[in-house]
């Protein structure tokens, strides 16, 4: 793109997805017809693009792919359904609904995601309407859980911190609600609501997004220092709450983060968001809206790989963005305020909040809620939901917080935790408790290697090394993904593995412990034996020669295992 083109909203030929959105009539396309087609368990390719905006992806079970192919059967088509709730907070009734539909229509498990949403896997086409209807009946939604719109807004999940948390959560909900799509297509298709007479007559509009929505997905997160569980620097738009003596003063605004890249394509890279100024709570919604509209107008609609907000900003420069934002706002941002993060992981077990209620964070390996062998996690949580009067909070690290338990109820919930041996992870290494892995195989169509199904096995082996080195209780942030799209935010981990091929991973080191620095490639395309052989000496070296309080990622840089990465622009150097 020439510099001239960078100055005006892009006019290059648009990608095929833009054409699909444009002729979709506000996300309707032929989805209704596709859903009714009895000949196949699939929907058409164009409708599949639109389906994402409705919160679902068509997938097929990749474990069964070859066998079905041999038998000349169509792939085992099924749908992933993503259910969003800003900040990941749901009621016990909503939890029970998710549990019920997971058993009745999906694969009997619930997946808690890295963005504080729920996912169901294995829903067949004929059950999609029931699933979405039941979700909406319980006042949750799948609309805009995926697609080229603002996704689930993340928010620090810990209710114990102070009233500041409750206030920030209310602002997160406001921003989320403000950016909801207005199309009635969702209500017509899934909830059988009355059809809009003719949406093309101007009766229906998307005031923020317009008829072709955004060039790409858009993500917003709210962090409350000193905690950065939401990985605020990975967000397209991050808000860092600034508070003093229990008072919320406002938010630092950070822009242009993102985790995805493609192997072998240096034009794609993960990036950290940069703080550009401070705004008061009352100015927040306006800032979010104007930022989204800038990406709507200037984001790359020709090349989807280059369409995220981070590229819009990096191509044009952060100063350009600040000017454009201030022009649209009609006022200037204040100077960024001081803040300090001390972690991006979860704190487990019971804590007492300022409101005298209790909160219990459970360790849920890679966010998968299921009953397996002797570990009846799903049943245990169902029994808790039946008596719980507070809330459930999905954490950004794929764990679950049982929130707002009164002192009287705590005993009963403790008994259930005991009966079902639900764990806060205390028996595991701190490394495992600081781990995340994306879904990957068998459902993710983009996975190049295992992730969720393999990470626990790798951790078993790494724990032996940690024991030798005396590092069992040291928190080291470790993440794995089955491909470089970055769904478990691996580029911000102190150790990460990104899938390249079956059983092979790129290994990265040196991310910042609080989620503030990208890591760097250390070894390429290695399997388990090499992973263990590479990590053993580094972990031992760390155990012997770290400075007081030095985190593993920082040590990897000081000991020159990898160079420090200051920006995504030098990620591949
Ligand atoms: Fe993701 C695509 C799962 C968080 C970056 N992601 C996918 C799809 C839908 C695969 C696909 O397009 O066919 C995966 C579905 C797998 C499955 O079978 O369930 C998928 N992403 C997930 C989840 C479930 C991972 C998890 O283990 O929890 C997370 C759901 C979040 C939610 O509730 O909304 C999830 N994805 C993320 C994150 C982390 C975050 O948002 O904090 C990222 C990196 C941050 C970012 O966006 O920069 C992420 N997912 C991607 C990308 C790369 C996007 C890019 O432009 O760089 C893709 C591929 C794409 O969009 O083309 C992708
Ligand atoms: Fe799938 Fe890749 Fe995301 Fe993992 S990182 S869920 S493999 S798209």
From TrEMBL:
A cellular-component GO term for this protein: sulfite reductase complex (NADPH)
EC number, UniProt record: 1.8.1.2
Gene that this sequence comes from: cysI
Keywords for this protein: 4Fe-4S, Amino-acid biosynthesis, Cysteine biosynthesis, Heme, Iron, Iron-sulfur, Metal-binding, NADP, Oxidoreductase
Keyword Nucleotidyltransferase belongs to the record: no
SUPFAM superfamilies per UniProt: Nitrite and sulphite reductase 4Fe-4S domain-like, Nitrite/Sulfite reductase N-terminal domain-like
Required cofactor(s): [4Fe-4S] cluster; siroheme
Chain's role: Component of the sulfite reductase complex that catalyzes the 6-electron reduction of sulfite to sulfide. This is one of several activities required for the biosynthesis of L-cysteine from sulfate.
Subunit and partners: Alpha(8)-beta(8). The alpha component is a flavoprotein, the beta component is a hemoprotein.
Organism: Paenibacillus montanisoli
Residues noted as binding siroheme in the record, renumbered to the chain: 487
Entry-linked Gene3D superfamilies: Sulfite Reductase Hemoprotein, domain 1 (3.30.413.10)
InterPro entries associated with the record: CysI, NiRdtase/SiRdtase_haem-b_fer, Nit/Sulf_reduc_fer-like_dom_sf, NO2/SO3_Rdtase_4Fe4S_dom, NO2/SO3_Rdtase_4Fe4S_prot, NO2/SO3_Rdtase_4Fe4S_sf, NO2/SO3_Rdtase_FeS/sirohaem_BS
Family designation: Belongs to the nitrite and sulfite reductase 4Fe-4S domain family.
Cofactor note: Binds 1 [4Fe-4S] cluster per subunit. Binds 1 siroheme per subunit.
The protein's name: Sulfite reductase [NADPH] hemoprotein beta-component
Gene Ontology molecular function, alphabetical: 4 iron, 4 sulfur cluster binding; heme binding; metal ion binding; NADP binding; sulfite reductase (ferredoxin) activity; sulfite reductase (NADPH) activity
Annotated Nitrite/sulphite reductase 4Fe-4S domain residues: 171-333
Entries under NCBIfam families matching the protein: CysI, PRK13504.1
Residues bound to [4Fe-4S] cluster: 438, 444, 483, 487
GO terms (BP aspect): cysteine biosynthetic process; hydrogen sulfide biosynthetic process; sulfate assimilation
